[in-house]
Design a protein that fits this description.
There is one protein chain. The chain is an alpha/beta fold. It has two domains: 411 residues, Amidase signature (AS) domain (Amidase signature (AS) enzymes, Alpha-Beta Complex), CATH 3.90.1300; 82 residues, no CATH class. It contains 16 helices and eleven strands. It has an eleven-stranded mixed β-sheet, sandwiched between helices. Helix 9 crosses helix 12. The longest helix has 22 residues. It is globular and about 70 Å long. Belongs to the amidase family. GatA subfamily.
C-alpha cells in the first residue's frame, strides 16, 4: 500500500472519496509523525478527530457530497493565530497561554464544512510578529532542511510542518510576508490572497489593514484546493470581507504552458541584499518561464524601496491599537497588583515578548500627538504610491516576479539581536502586502543546499491566473522536497531542483 504521507493533498482527498484510504488511516499516519516531530512545529495536537474543535472525520461524519474539490477528511494544521472552539489558542504568547476560545474563526469553519479535520495548532512568532519563528513563547521552530536554521516567520510552524511531512496542508497568515517567506525558506508553496477575499473573523489581529489568511502546501494544486474552501460569501462579522471565489469559481490549475504571458521583473527588488545563489535560482526560473512561452521584461516599481520603512510604521501602529485590549482585565492572563496602572504594566511586562513590546512602542510613538502626520500620515502616502506603482505595472505586464526572500534560511540566533537585519528579510514581500495584491511563493531551486522561493504576483483577484502560471512553472522546475520530507520518494525529482547550480 502507498504510504499516505507520500500523497499530495489532492491525491489524498481523491483516495478518501474513492474509499481507497480511510480518514482514520490518514489522520493516524500524520498524527503519529507529528507526535515524533523534532522541529517544534506544533503547539497542540488533536488526540483524536473527535476532540473538541477538531471537527470529526470530515466528509465521513458530515455526509458531505462527493466532488473533486471536497476535502473529505483531509487533515489540516492551523496556525495558532486562529481561534477554534475549545482548542488552546495563544498566538504563541504567554499573555494568552491556556486560552480556549468559545468560537471558531470563519476560515477554519469553512474548511471544516468542506470536510477537513483539524490535526493541530502550529507554532508561530508571537502575535505573528517576526520573520524567523524565534519570537514564540513555545520556543523556536527548526527548519526541516537544516535543524540549525530558522524556518522563516511568522507562519514558520505551518511551513515547517508541511515541509517535514507532518501535515498535508496548513493554514497561515500573511501580514508582510508571513506565509510566503517561510514557504520559501522551507521549500513549500504559500499563497497570500487578495486582501479581503478571506474572512479575518476569529483571526487574532496584528495589523488589520494587512492581515490575511493563506494556505501552505507541498504543491500549487494543493494550495488551490485549500484556497477554494477558504473564500466564499461576504462574512458579516468581518467588515473588510469582500466575498469572492469559492469552489464554484476557482478551479485546480492545469496549465502546462505560459504562451503569451507577460512577466515583469522589478529591478528595485533585485539589488543589494539578494544573495548570489538566490539570484541564480531566480534567473534559472525566469529562463524556464521563457521556455514555456512567457515574455519576461523589466518593470518599474519606483516606490518599492520605501516599503520597508512604511510597513514598520503602519503595521506597528495598528498593532499598538489592536493589542491594547490585552491588559489583564478585558483579555489576557493577569498578574496580581495593588492598583490598575500596576496591573496593566505588570501584565504586559510579563505577558508580551521583546519583539511584541518593540513594535507596540514603535506604533504608539508613531500615533502620538505631534508625530502622527510626520510618521503615520506620510507612511500612508507612501502606501498609496506603492498601490499606484502596481496598477501602472499591471498595465504593462500580467504578472510580477521576484525572489520571495533575498536570502536562504539563516542560522538560529543569527539575527535575534539585530532587528533591522531581521526586518530586511521581508523586503521582497512587503510591497505586495502594502498593495493588497495576491502573491504566491513556489520553490525554484537550491542555494547552499537550501530552498529558494520564486514569488509571482498579479492584480487583485488574479489568484486563478497566478495559480495556473505557478503550476506550469512548478512542473517545469520539478523541485524535489524529499530532503525535508524524509521520505524515500515523493516526486520524480525533475530537473535537479531547478537547475540553479
Amino acid at each position: 500500500m502507498t504510504d499516505p504521507i507520500s500523497l499530495t493533498a489532492v491525491e489524498a482527498a481523491a483516495a478518501l472519496r474513492r474509499g481507497e484510504l480511510s480518514p482514520r488511516e490518514l489522520f493516524d499516519a500524520y498524527r503519529q509523525r507529528a507526535a515524533a516531530d523534532d522541529t517544534n512545529s506544533f503547539t497542540w495536537l488533536a488526540d483524536d478527530p473527535t476532540t473538541a474543535g477538531a471537527g470529526g472525520f470530515g466528509g465521513e461524519d458530515r455526509g458531505v457530497p462527493g466532488a473533486d474539490t471536497v476535502l473529505a477528511g483531509l487533515p489540516v494544521a492551523i496556525k495558532d493565530l486562529f481561534c477554534i472552539t475549545g482548542v488552546p489558542t495563544a498566538a504563541c504568547s504567554n499573555l494568552l497561554r491556556g486560552y480556549r476560545p468559545p468560537y471558531t474563526a470563519t476560515v477554519v469553519a469553512r474548511l471544516q464544512e468542506a470536510g477537513a479535520t483539524i490535526l493541530g495548532k502550529t507554532n508561530q512568532d508571537e502575535f505573528a510578529m517576526g520573520s524567523s519563528n524565534e519570537n514564540s513563547a513555545f520556543g523556536p521552530v527548526r527548519n526541516p532542511w537544516d535543524r540549525s536554521r530558522v524556518p522563516g516567520g511568522s507562519s514558520g510552524g505551518s511551513a515547517a510542518a508541511v515541509a517535514a511531512g507532518l501535515a498535508p496542508v496548513a493554514l497561515g497568515t500573511d501580514t508582510g510576508g508571513s506565509v510566503r517567506q517561510p514557504a520559501a525558506l522551507c521549500g513549500v508553496v504559500g499563497l497570500k490572497p487578495t486582501y479581503g477575499t478571506v474572512s479575518r473573523y476569529g483571526m487574532i489581529a496584528f495589523a488589520s489593514s494587512l492581515d490575511q489568511a493563506g494556505p501552505i502546501s507541498r504543491t500549487v494544486a494543493d494550495t488551490a484546493l485549500l484556497f477554494q474552501h477558504m473564500t466564499g460569501p461576504v462574512d458579516p462579522r468581518d467588515a473588510t470581507s469582500i466575498g469572492w471565489g469559492g469552489a464554484d469559481e476557482l478551479g485546480l490549475p492545469t496549465a502546462e504552458r505560459l504562451d503569451g504571458l507577460r512577466i515583469g521583473v522589478p529591478v528595485e527588488l533585485l539589488g543589494e541584499g539578494v544573495e548570489p545563489g538566490v539570484r541564480a535560482a531566480f534567473d534559472a526560473a525566469l529562463r524556464r518561464a521563457e521556455d514555456l512561452g512567457a515574455e519576461v521584461t523589466d518593470v518599474a516599481l519606483p516606490h518599492a524601496r520605501h516599503a520597508l520603512a512604511a510597513y514598520y510604521v503602519l503595521a506597528p501602529a495598528e498593532a499598538s491599537s489592536n493589542l491594547s485590549r490585552f491588559d489583564g482585565v478585558r483579555y489576557g492572563n493577569r498578574v496580581d497588583a495593588d492598583d490598575l496602572v500596576s496591573l496593566y504594566t505588570r501584565t504586559r511586562h510579563d505577558g508580551f515578548g521583546p519583539e511584541v513590546k518593540r513594535r507596540i512602542m514603535l506604533g504608539t510613538f508613531a500615533l502620538s500627538s505631534g508625530y502622527y502626520d510626520a510618521y503615520y500620515g506620510r507612511a500612508q502616502q507612501v502606501r498609496t504610491k506603492i498601490v499606484e506603482d502596481f496598477r501602472a505595472a499591471h498595465e504593462q505586464v500580467d504578472l510580477i516576479a521576484t525572489p520571495t526572500s533575498p536570502t536562504v534560511a539563516w542560522k538560529l540566533g543569527e539575527r535575534v539581536d539585530d532587528p533591522l537585519a531581521m526586518y530586511q528579510a521581508d523586503t521582497s514581500t512587503l510591497p505586495f502586502s502594502l498593495a493588497g495584491v495576491p502573491a504566491i511563493s513556489i520553490p525554484c531551486g537550491l542555494s547552499e543546499g537550501l530552498p529558494v522561493g520564486l514569488q509571482l504576483s498579479g492584480p487583485v483577484f488574479s489568484e486563478q491566473r497566478i495559480l495556473e502560471a505557478a503550476h506550469a512553472l512548478e512542473q517545469a522546475i520539478g523541485f524535489d522536497g524529499t530532503p525535508a520530507l524524509g521520505l524515500d520518494a515523493v516526486t520524480d525529482g525533475g530537473a535537479a531542483n531547478g537547475g540553479a547550480a
